[in-house]
Amino acid sequence: MADLFHDKNISPMLLNEVKEPYDDKAYIYELKLDGIRCITYLGKDVVLHNKRFKDVSAIYPELSEMSKCVKKNIVLDGELVLLSNGKPDFYALQKRSLMSDKFRIQLAAKKQSVQFAAYDILYYNGKDLTDKPLMERKAILQEKVTEGNGLSISRYIEEKGIAFFNLAKEQELEGIVAKKKDGLYHIGKRTSDWIKIKVMQDADLLVCGYQPDEDGMPKDLILGYYDENGNLQCRGKVYLGVSKEEQAIILKNAKKNTVKRPWFEKYKNAVWLKPELIGTAHYMHETESGGMRQPVWKGLRDDK
User: Is the sign of the CA dihedral 243, 244, 249, 255 positive or negative?
Assistant: First the structure.
């Protein structure tokens, strides 16, 4: 018979997504933490598996004492988070996740510790808990896990999803997650029991060029804007959401408005355009380099 703790092959439950927050008594609401999803096995040792089943325990030695927070073998679902100024810093965490040198890892762990925020319990002392309702699992999580040693338990609120989302937006956080109170834990499956609502923003940007696909059609749109001094600055590129109709418009524009000199040197094999076309990009927030995180193209504008 399969044993979730000893087999260590759990694929985390996936989330559906909606654009607008909502209030519903049948759901609880948690912050969507901007981190790295992990299934954590706590027993004699601490084993952290990312979504690709890779054991990443050695990358985060500051979490090696989390087993002291439990008395029996436990499996938790949650998020690795690195806080900067009180907010999750995905970019700093991403740098940590790519480290391999033990000495550098130890230095980084002492300088800025990673935390594990647990929001679900899947197994306790030989028992599979995935077939229990969410609120029952939440109660077991609170009862059987003690916070400390880098381990925290995710808080939630009930019913007031819209107000909670607006608070997340005000604080420039990633968004919220709505979870059905009586929902079971569906390993590796995407259901409407868990729903993410992201905080996104829009920006009107200039189409400065594009990288063509193998057929010569515009694929990645390279976007920019004029700063306060009138200098053209790069905002990054986007490929999701570009329609065939807009590809045709951009291609038609390129026939008479190409420029030889690249606007931004970092993009190779690009067709550069006079920055005349304007469109709107929908994205999560700015990256450290001034680009866009998870951008989606909303469309060209003919009113600007």
Answer: positive
**Backbone angles phi and psi of 6, in degrees to 5:** -80, -30
CA–CA gap between residue 22 and residue 134 (Å, rounded): 19
d(CA 2, CA 204): 53
Which regions of 106-212 does DSSP assign to beta strands (E)? 115-124, 127-128, 151-153, 157-159, 175-180, 190-198, 201-212
pLDDT in tens, 230-255: 999 999 999 988 889 999 999 999 99
pTM: 0.81
- The catalytic residues are 32
What confidence tier does 2 reach under pLDDT thresholds 50, 70, 90? confident
Distance CA 215, CA 207 (A): 20
Is-contact 222 263, C-beta < 8 A?
Answer: yes
Q: Which helix (H) or strand (E) holds 7?
A: helix 4-7
